[in-house]
């Protein structure tokens, strides 16, 4: 499995299905990793696409110093470095939650390389003060080894994943197996992110915003503001019954939307 290394002792882990098809690059949400896109990878490979997934700093198999500060602009550069390493000149980006923050910034940094954006359960704004307070309390507890993990997971899993206990179980297991301190710098990045709402008009590639009906983080209002700001966004798609991780709990519905959107992107490219 490949890694991309940089001068800051960061090694970004990614997977690549290879093949000659149009490239799609997936970025995951907080407390998750590229494992969350297994249903989408299998589906898109069957449709002839080349699929790359990468683990963000502080998550999954990516290696980064837990005390080294970074921003989502750095994450966007990580994404572009993955594309470079894989020899991918152009791609559609699919970003879920914080993966969407990186995807938007990558589209601002390298617009000629981004063919389209599919933004899942994400937003373009900054955290409000109440959100920042809640995040700090969560991250302080999460990174404290003296705080039991199970009560934190019991509170987090329904909001972060949604769906059933069976949907949440693989993530609870991954959290127990992870280095809890690794997310400290990633947490500060999340808390301190700035809004890019005022720059969305600079992004003119095709875009689609999708959210779960019961997502309490990426609300209907935030999703609509994101779609309204993008120059070429289609109407917001809502997945009935889904929460924040719609692609994980409702993969068939999300895959159908993703496949149709990518079909339109590919058709437009070959005209």
Task: Supply the number of structural domains.
Answer: 1
The helical percent reads 40-55%
| CATH topology group | Rossmann fold
CATH homology-level superfamily = Alpha/Beta hydrolase fold, catalytic domain
The biggest beta sheet, please?
8 strands, mixed
Task: Describe, in plain words, how this protein is organized in 3D.
- The protein has 271 residues and is of the alpha/beta class.
- It has a single domain (3-126, 194-270), classed as 3-Layer(aba) Sandwich (Rossmann fold).
- The chain has ten helices and eight strands.
- An eight-stranded mixed sheet has the order 1-2-4-3-5-6-7-8, with helices on both faces.
- Helix 1 (38-46) crosses helix 10 and helix 4 (129-142) runs antiparallel to helix 7.
- The relative contact order is 0.16.
Spell out the blueprint of helices and strands.
Elements lengths: L2 E3 L5 E6 L6 E5 L10 H9 L3 E5 L17 H15 L4 E6 L1 H12 L4 E7 L8 H14 L6 H12 L4 H13 L6 H9 L14 E6 L7 H10 L7 E3 L6 H4 L1 H20 L1
Parallel strand pairs: 3-4, 3-5, 5-6, 6-7, 7-8
Antiparallel strand pairs: 1-2, 2-4
Helix pairs in contact: 1-10, 2-3, 4-7, 5-6
In a few lines, what is going on in this structure?
This protein has 271 residues and is α/β, with parallel strands linked by helices.
């Amino acid at each position: 499995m490949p890694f991309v290394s940089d001068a800051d002792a960061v090694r970004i882990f990614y997977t690549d299905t290879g093949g000659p098809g149009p490239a799609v690059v997936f970025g995951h949400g907080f407390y998750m990793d590229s494992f969350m896109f297994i249903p989408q990878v299998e589906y898109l490979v069957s449709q002839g696409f080349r699929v790359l997934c990468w683990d963000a700093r502080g998550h999954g198999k990516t290696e980064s110093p837990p005390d080294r500060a970074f921003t989502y602009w750095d994450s966007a550069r990580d994404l572009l470095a993955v594309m470079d390493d894989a020899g991918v000149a152009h791609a559609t980006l699919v970003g879920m939650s914080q993966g969407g923050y990186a995807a938007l910034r990558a589209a601002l940094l390298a617009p000629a390389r981004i063919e389209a954006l599919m933004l899942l359960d994400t937003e373009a704004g900054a955290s409000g003060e109440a959100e920042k307070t809640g995040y700090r309390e969560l991250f302080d507890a999460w990174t404290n080894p003296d705080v039991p993990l199970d009560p934190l997971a019991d509170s987090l899993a329904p909001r972060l994943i949604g769906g059933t206990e069976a949907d949440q179980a693989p993530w609870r297991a991954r959290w127990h197996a992870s280095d809890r301190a690794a997310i400290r710098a990633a947490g500060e990045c999340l808390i301190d992110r700035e809004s890019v709402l005022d720059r969305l008009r600079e992004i003119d590639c095709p875009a689609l915003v999708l959210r779960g009906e019961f997502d309490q983080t990426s609300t209907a209002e935030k999703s609509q503001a994101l779609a309204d700001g993008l120059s070429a966004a289609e109407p917001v798609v809502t997945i009935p019954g889904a929460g924040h991780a719609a692609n994980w709990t409702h993969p068939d519905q999300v895959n159908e939307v993703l496949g149709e959107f990518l079909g339109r992107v590919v058709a437009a490219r070959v005209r």
